[in-house]
């Protein structure tokens, strides 16, 4: 890929576009062992050897992170009242990261963070039917009839019924149940609305997997790690489970 030298350096977190222009002027940057003509010089991200203060750069066009979203932060880039998921990524060199989809303020669990728009689109587009699994605590007893209703699809006030959801009852008492639910869509408040449709309320919600990849059990709320090559292959659809 051919890109401008100032973009290359800014993408790699060396500084802002105007800062890196200064570094180029001050001869702190070299391309293939020579001083570049200017910030607008094109570099080949795979072929050209770029150094900054003598350090060799390795260009990564896209980055992918698995984030354990904690409760109380919003899945948006900015918010006037709450912390955002991107506030957890301020140390990252890339400034073009965004969350792949949304989890509610009070929902926790797996959220992918990337700067790859096509990757995000492929996971979120309604026609792709990417599975998302949630663990939830529900007030009231979830029954086998509910399992059947979820499997048929539910009226949550949209034009059509939801797609079938796979509901597993993990434990159920009169006042309180624990479940796992896999759905193939991502409508606004979908899990909460599906339970409301059978007269029950979600009191705790956590996404435990997406696109066949599970939330890493070693992550704590607010922590993240890079998505592995194998996970990326699964998420990109090579081995959708
Ligand atoms: N369904 C919900 O109701 N909330 C979420 O955050 C995710 C799925």
Describe, in plain words, how this protein is organized in 3D.
This protein is of the alpha+beta class and 241 residues long. Helices cover 20% and strands 29% of the residues. The chain has helices at 5-11, 17-25, 117-124, 144-152, 190-197, 229-235; strands at 2-4, 29-31, 42-44, 50-52, 55-56, 64-69, 73-74, 83-84, 98-99, 108-114, 132-139, 166-172, 176-183, 201-210, 213-214, 224-226. The strands form four sheets. Strands 6, 9, 10, 11, 12, 13, 14, 15 and 16 form a nine-stranded mixed beta sheet that branches. It is elongated, with a radius of gyration of 22 Å. The two termini are 32 Å apart. The mean pLDDT is 94. Bound molecules: uracil. The site of uracil (URA) has 8 residues, from helix 5.
Please name the defining characteristics of this protein.
241 residues; alpha+beta; nine-stranded mixed sheet; binds uracil
Quick structural overview:
The protein has helices at residues 5-11, 17-25, 117-124, 144-152, 190-197, 229-235, and strands spanning 2-4, 29-31, 42-44, 50-52, 55-56, 64-69, 73-74, 83-84, 98-99, 108-114, 132-139, 166-172, 176-183, 201-210, 213-214, 224-226. The protein is α+β, with helices and mostly antiparallel strands and 241 residues long.
Using the alpha-carbon principal axes, give the shape: elongated
**Cα end-to-end separation:** 32 Å
Tally of helical segments: 6
Radius of gyration: 22 Å
SSE series? EHHEEEEEEEEEHEHEEHEEEH
Give the topology, please.
Elements: E1 2-4, H1 5-11, H2 17-25, E2 29-31, E3 42-44, E4 50-52, E5 55-56, E6 64-69, E7 73-74, E8 83-84, E9 98-99, E10 108-114, H3 117-124, E11 132-139, H4 144-152, E12 166-172, E13 176-183, H5 190-197, E14 201-210, E15 213-214, E16 224-226, H6 229-235
Parallel strand pairs: 7-8, 10-14
Antiparallel strand pairs: 1-3, 2-4, 4-5, 6-10, 6-16, 9-10, 11-13, 11-14, 12-13, 14-15
Helix pairs in contact: 1-2
Bound molecules: uracil.
């Amino acid at each position: 890929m051919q890109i401008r030298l100032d973009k290359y350096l800014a993408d790699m977190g060396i500084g802002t576009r105007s800062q890196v222009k200064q570094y180029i002027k001050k001869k702190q940057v070299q391309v293939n062992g020579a001083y570049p003509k200017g910030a607008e010089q094109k570099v080949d991200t795979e072929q050209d050897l770029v150094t900054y203060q003598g350090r060799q750069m390795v260009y990564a066009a896209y980055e992918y992170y698995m984030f354990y979203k904690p409760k109380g932060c919003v899945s948006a880039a900015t918010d006037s009242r709450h912390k955002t998921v991107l506030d957890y990524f301020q140390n990252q060199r890339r400034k073009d990261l965004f969350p792949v989809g949304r989890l509610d303020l009070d929902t926790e669990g797996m959220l992918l963070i990337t700067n790859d728009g096509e990757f995000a689109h492929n996971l979120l587009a309604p026609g792709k039917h990417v599975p998302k699994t949630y663990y939830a605590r529900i007030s009231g007893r979830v029954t086998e009839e509910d399992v059947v209703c979820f499997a048929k699809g539910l009226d949550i006030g949209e034009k059509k019924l939801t797609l079938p959801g796979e509901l597993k009852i993990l434990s159920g008492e009169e006042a309180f149940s624990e479940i796992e639910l896999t759905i193939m869509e991502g409508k606004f408040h979908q899990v909460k609305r599906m339970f409301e449709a059978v007269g029950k309320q979600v009191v705790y919600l956590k996404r435990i997997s997406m696109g066949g990849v599970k939330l890493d059990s070693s992550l704590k709320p607010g922590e993240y790690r890079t998505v592995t090559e194998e996970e990326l292959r699964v998420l990109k659809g090579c081995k959708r489970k």
